[in-house]
Amino acid sequence: MAKRVLCKFFAHGACLKGEHCEFSHDWKDPSNNICTFYQKGACAFGSRCRYEHVKASRAQSSGSSSSANSHQSLAFDSAPAHPSRTASSGVALVPGTLSELSAFSSPFLPPPKPAWSDSLDDGDVDQNEDDDVGVGETRSARPADRAICSFAAAGNCPRGEKCPHIHGDICPSCGKHCLHPYRPVEREEHMRTCEEKHKHLEALKRSQEIECSVCLERVLSKPTVAERKFGILSECDHPFCISCIRNWRSSSPTSGMDVNSALRACPICRKLSYFVIPSVIWYSTKEEKEEIVDSYKARLRSIDCKHFDFGNGNCPFGTSCFYKHTVKPGSYVWKFHRPPPRRPPPRRSDIVQMDALYQMFEHLEELEDYTPGDLDIEGLNPLEMQFLLMQLGFDPSDSSDDELNF
Amino acid sequence: MVDFARVQKELQECSRDIERSGIKVVPKSDGNLAHLVGTIPGPIGTPYEGGTFQIDIALPDAYPFEPPKMQFTTKVWHPNISSQSGAICLDILKDQWSPALTLKTALLSVQALLSAPQPDDPQDAVVAQQYLRDYQTFVGTARYWTESFAKTSSLGIDEKVKRLVEMGFPESRARSALETVGGDENLALENLCSG
Which residues form a coiled coil (chain A) (predicted)? Predict the structure, then answer.
């Protein structure tokens, strides 16, 4: 009896038990190709699962009578999830008849409705059962309920013409037989994701060729993963790797280079850009660039601004800050509805303060290094330290210069 | 730390294009890519035509994020180039530097500077004044300087090698001696005799 269900491992050509296997190694026997996770209610693979996603009654129809016990238990397993089900006797009865019936007639045809969607109130049972059986016989051939062959979908079905499953239509993007001919929603879904994947791959392929104009290397061939990223300038379309463009923008404005006219400008066209967007992919159209920029900004918006500090700090960017300004109850902004006052700038250090500000602008651009609420005091340079002290309420000009020049 | 991978690439690119641009960049000594020597031909239609000008290039540690330090080693009579030190007054070598510029493009700009002097922003006040007040004399001086300083070095080096070989020196040694002294035949002879 047990021999009647086709061995899963045998079907994949990898059963180690050979003739001692308790399952059948005969291709003619029906396979039990039902996803057990789906039976329990959650299969992580979703529509991509190689096993069939049908409910318990489907299992009964395709299984053999010997496995009726396990199917029953399956049906029982799902019972607690449906408290409306007053008695599982209906299910317990159905498998017997159904499996007996289907084992001979049409082992692969599932009944039209999953068992747990049946209303099993005693009063309805008879009617329902009539419905189920009646419709099951007529509608069980509904092709939309049949799964497509996963071998064919993966590229090649060894059973070819003789395969009992439907072979899907060819997807124009991936070229595999993975479009279900009778499930339009699934079809659409697959075509859409497939096209997106295809586009992404194409873009990635194009991006491989692109060189950084500063280090003259292909950006995606740089030695470390962190370096294999483009730094997109908001105002022009010249490609750089993220490390090069950040390096350039943060290089100290010595030798008379002006921050705004030289460092913040594109090294090639000298157009001014106020921010750099990291991206693993280079774009080819304006829309693609917009998409990259928008998703980057959306990502930043979900991170709390460390300058704003939940309403206790003073963010130099104010309302145009890319990061999230969450006002915590009890914070300064929460109490007074305005940012905390800045300390008067220390004497003789207007320029220094501007420099400190610029440093912070640059740090804001470094998304990866950004850890909210984590002020790395050790890593601050004297200017930032001074700025920080200012924020905290110390007047750095009170202390001697030596203390600041660590 | 100088980005030597980039410098290497620039040198390759430059040598590939040497026929068209005439611009040459080679390391001053083997194995040290931070110190280079560039050579540019004098632009045609200027008093510098026919001359070959050598430029000493020192790459700062932050190259390419800082401009290379360039200085003429060949003496030039030009309002924006010091006739004494060879210092060049050119914005892209100072505040207008961009990391997208390369040694070759910078040398091309220097070459362009030779054909388009900017006497209003001079490096050498004497030359600039002469340029503005007495252009003819300026052209004459510039041409004379080109003849006497920019032509001896590499022109007819084969002839000089030949003459040294006739004096009894092996060809390879004669050639290397000429190269080390920058093409001066007498210095090369001295060098060969002493070494």
Answer: none
